[in-house]
Amino acid sequence: MRFRLTPRETSFYDMFAASADNIVTGSKLLMELLGADTSARAEIAERMRAAEHAGDDATHAIFHQLNSSFITPFDREDIYSLASSLDDIMDFMEEAVDLVVLYNIEELPRGVEQQIEVLARAAELTAEAMPHLRTMDSLTEYWIEVNRLENQADQIHRKLLAHLFNGKYDAIEVLKLKQIVDVLEEAADAFEHVANTVETIAVKES
């Protein structure tokens, strides 16, 4: 790691950790949605909405700190990219839950649980990785594993699409379910964006 002669604003580390912890909360609500009956989903969606708002607040706090800090722990564009990608994850997860409720989906197609399990694992890894930004150690396995999980999510997504278009569902139901599984796939992509940004930061700081 490069030796620095200037002090750095270290509150960013805590902010990123808090944002990632909030994503874990969101992933748990997604898991909870899987086992809930339709009558309980609106309440889960409300809690997910609150978590998404908390994520927005965390992101705005990072941007405010970025705009008011003369010295930052790493490049400003990387701080912005990391905060934005973390925020995207929460947005996509909240959107998926909201669509399930708005479309009044009675039963999610088989395979969605695998999508959500991948997201939950990626959330745990991301939350574990954020504190390591302070030292930039023990991060290689993180971004390798998240990239592997994203590849797994791609495969699950393709199988889900094939299932949706096998003629079992009517056209309107296909449109509704496809939008949900597509948004969950976007969440997986956003986790990969976070991991790629962390890798970029680590390379620059090495």
TrEMBL record:
It comes from Streptomyces griseomycini. SUPFAM superfamilies: PhoU-like. Belongs to the UPF0111 family. This is DUF47 domain-containing protein. It holds the Pfam family PhoU_div. InterPro entries: PhoU-like_sf, Put_Phosphate_transp_reg, UPF0111_domain. PANTHER family: UPF0111 PROTEIN YKAA (PTHR37298:SF1).
